[in-house]
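As a warm-up, study this chain.
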Amino acid sequence: MKSRICEMLGVDFPLVAFSHCRDVVAAVSRAGGFGVLGATAFSPDQLDLELKWIDQHIDGKPYGVDVLIPENLSIKDERGVTSHSLAERIPQQHREFVRDLLIRHGVEATHAPQEGIYRPGAGLSLQEEGALKLLEVSFQHPIKLIANALGVPPQSMLALGHRYGVPVAALVGAKEHAVRQAQAGVDIIIAEGWEAGGHCGEVSTLVLVPEVVRAIKPIRDIPVLAAGGIMTGRQMAACIALGAAGVWTGSVWLATTESEVSEIFREKMIAARSRDTVRSKCRTGKYSRQLRSAWTDAWESHDSPQPLPMPFQSLISEPALRAAQRAAQNGNSKARELVTYFVGQGVGLVDSIKSSRVVVQEFMQEFAEAMDETQRLIEN
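Now compare it with the structure written out below.
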């Protein structure tokens, strides 16, 4: 394909793959797509190690980095906070709710390591200062894209991207958000429908993409990537027909041999239907789509203390879910009921586990077939 987004990213096929796993990022880029590493969970030193590994295994192919700088964050303007001080602000009611939930599923409270709560940097990379440290590390590597979710990137992020000649992308869930992003100066807009895994809005991809394309056209000529529920090359072709310049994908890479998820979660993905995901605040404090489980059900129940705002909810959810995962891997069937992860409604299309290279190849083949069939219809 020849499109503006291909020129900006240095690829021939505008299939962008977001992943928290360096192996997926490298494999996708080597296969002809464009891998993007989710950096928020790493400390600056850890991120540097991850990017060095990618540089050594990506065969010179382009890749990008994604950070998370929410516009609306409960600790946004606080200074001098630490992971420990944040954890101390978690209400006892929420601690007890999580402890009791784990115990009911055979996961002893002592198996939820407190060091998980106090992980250095936990929650702090969501603040502008912390995220910029990650970006400073990223620009020491040959990245070709930086992306941000949950709001307009701060001017400091836009300035860094433009200084290094790297396009800045931003995710949006509504057309009015896209207008604000265009006015702020982003280079690429990712229109993410509510089908998407992780943080998402309330408008479907089929409606959102043409809305965004139409809304930003009078402002500037900005390429739009479609996101949300996209698992196949035929869906990608449909998004191009809607006006997108390419697609941003995430959930499809969880069902690959390289991904960071456990074998238990892979098995759950294969068994899941598209209706087996929920949009809930129970993991991060902001609405995100994830696989339904005993964890999500508990937080939606009438006796739930209700999720805390970001980043506090993650400080109690992540250690607990890691403990449940370990217990499940050790044979605890009740703990298995708690296992969940961010995944979109496209999970209903997952029927097997494949390598990332095979997924890229299937995208290319199905996309070409769909476009050929469309062309024949036009000719006839």
